[in-house]
Structure to design on (546 residues):
């Protein structure tokens, strides 16, 4: 996969044998206001400057804002904000708050945190999210000192951020844990030990981490008594246990020792009508990425033919694929931008609905054959052989790749699809090097705005390894991020048009969206799930009747 973000989804991986030891280490009795959860894998890091994902860490690190239900912006460490008329200067008033060790949280702690993240030696994978801050790109490239980043503390409680262009989604972006404050005194005190264990860290969120040693199979989020909004936090703890076997997890749930468990495909079929069954979508789209710059001239010729790409898309029955993957009806894929991510500023229409273009990501085998014949005639080819590179570490890709091979070869005369199944690290390397014809890839939004998807297809973007270029697409993304950035309705229209260009040209071919089935204890209330950013928030969660 292109982007296997560590979203730290509450849930469990592929079926593996799980020892009795793990079962016995899950509490036998549900403690008062303690949420019991399974984890897919151990936490890899708790250093927000080097993390590769923030699906859960918004519970222990808080930034200027938080995401509430349905992505609504809520109060975080900023009690107010102002933006200049040109949209280039933001001023945040920091509320009176403390880190978990009692140190006051100041505006300077944000300055230090962001400078530390953008510094080249930190090697943060998310410097792109700071790119609109003055001097950020030059600093990330090592051309300027991090102290020249366009962020400064006007006083202890006033943070000023200077941008190079307006950012319409600024508050949404500022809810991302990447932008949380860091305590310089603590980092300097612990040195190389910093963030290697839960005790070598301080926390700004509703919970603090306990019992994590870097490779722990169990850990806890404990209620943070120094959190500024402490009174609204009802849970005393959230306990996690790494469980890789879905059968074990289901048993523990049925025995009352887990409150929420992800289901595999077979379990979804068996439990989709259960009263405890819930669906949680993610703003992550799986798609076919094309290599427009292939060294193989025949491959390059056919992939640069728009009719050929439309034929591939129209030959895919996404409904059949989704039902097999998830076992229940999912939102139809209408384009690259995932459904449930963002709504229009006035009429509140889902972006996914607006981006739809008829006869592009539909299942129309007759039309697919017509486009295919046009492509063969235009290229002078009678037979076409392409390879599809897939990540063997993703449990869904085996089915998806086999389905695509059978479906495309059946619908499109003279077409052969060879499968290249490799480990995720190898797939990532081949993606980076452009060593593929077609790549089964994925992208998940970092924040709740369509631009989080659209920007990655611009020329020069790190993830645009296939070399996609389209003047109309670039023009509309540029308008949305510059000229129309302060006009919400026009900016939205620009992004819709850009997404429709992707559909009309099939410069990438969307396949399905990540949507997962769970069993959830009906007594558990108040969990906030968002499709992007910090997906899981337990600040307002509680167990009814306890």
């Amino acid at each position: 996969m292109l982007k296997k973000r560590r979203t730290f989804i509450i849930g469990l991986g592929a079926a593996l044998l799980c020892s009795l030891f793990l079962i016995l280490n899950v509490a036998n009795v549900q403690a008062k206001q303690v949420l019991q959860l399974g984890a897919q894998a151990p936490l890899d890091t708790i250093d927000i400057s080097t993390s590769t994902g923030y699906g859960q860490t918004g519970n222990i690190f808080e930034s200027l804002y938080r995401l509430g239900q349905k992505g609504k912006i809520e109060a975080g460490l900023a009690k107010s904000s102002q933006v200049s008329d040109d949209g280039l200067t933001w001023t945040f008033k920091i509320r009176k708050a403390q880190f978990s060790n009692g140190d006051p949280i100041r505006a300077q702690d944000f300055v230090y945190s962001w400078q530390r993240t953008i510094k080249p030696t930190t090697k943060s994978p998310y410097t792109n999210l700071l790119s609109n801050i003055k001097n950020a790109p030059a600093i990330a490239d090592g051309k300027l000192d991090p102290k020249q980043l366009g962020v400064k503390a006007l006083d202890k409680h006033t943070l000023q951020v200077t941008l190079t262009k307006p950012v319409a989604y600024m508050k949404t972006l500022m809810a991302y844990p990447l932008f949380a404050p860091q305590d310089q005194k603590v980092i300097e005190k612990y040195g190389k030990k910093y963030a290697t264990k839960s005790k070598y860290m301080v926390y700004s969120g509703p919970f603090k981490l306990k019992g994590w040693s870097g490779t722990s199979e169990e850990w806890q989020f404990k209620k943070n008594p120094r959190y500024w909004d402490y009174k609204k936090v009802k849970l005393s703890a959230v306990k996690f246990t790494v469980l890789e076997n879905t059968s074990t997890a289901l048993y523990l749930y049925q025995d009352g020792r887990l409150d929420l468990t992800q289901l595999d495909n077979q379990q979804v079929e068996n439990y989709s009508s259960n009263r405890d069954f819930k669906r949680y979508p993610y703003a992550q789209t799986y798609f076919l990425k094309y290599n427009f710059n292939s060294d193989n001239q025949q491959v390059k010729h056919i992939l640069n033919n728009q009719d050929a790409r439309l034929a591939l898309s129209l030959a895919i029955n996404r409904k059949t694929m989704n039902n097999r993957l998830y076992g229940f009806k999912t939102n139809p894929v209408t384009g690259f931008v995932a459904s449930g991510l963002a709504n229009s500023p006035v009429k509140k229409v889902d972006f996914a609905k607006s981006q739809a273009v008829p006869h592009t990501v539909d299942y129309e085998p007759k039309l697919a054959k017509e486009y295919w014949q046009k492509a063969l005639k235009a290229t002078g080819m009678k037979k076409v052989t392409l390879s599809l590179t897939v990540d063997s570490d993703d449990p869904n890709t085996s089915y998806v790749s086999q389905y695509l091979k059978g479906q495309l070869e059946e619908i499109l005369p003279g077409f052969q699809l060879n499968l290249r199944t490799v480990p995720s690290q190898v797939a990532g390397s081949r993606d980076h090097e452009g060593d593929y014809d077609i790549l089964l890839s994925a992208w998940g939004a970092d924040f709740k705005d369509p631009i989080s998807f659209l920007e990655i297809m611009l020329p020069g973007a790190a993830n645009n390894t296939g070399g996609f270029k389209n003047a109309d697409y670039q023009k509309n993304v540029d308008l949305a991020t510059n000229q129309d950035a302060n006009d919400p309705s026009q900016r939205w229209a620009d992004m819709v048009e850009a997404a429709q260009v992707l559909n009309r040209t099939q410069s990438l071919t969307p396949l399905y969206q990540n949507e997962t089935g769970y069993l959830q204890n009906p007594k558990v209330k108040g969990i906030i799930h968002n499709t992007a950013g910090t997906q899981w928030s337990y600040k307002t969660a509680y167990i009814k009747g306890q």
Observations:
- Residues 52 and 125 are 6 Å apart (CA to CA).
- The chain has two domains: 34-241+521-543, 282-515.
- Residues 282-515 form a domain with the Dipeptide-binding Protein; domain 3 fold (CATH 3.10.105.10).
- The radius of gyration is 24 Å.
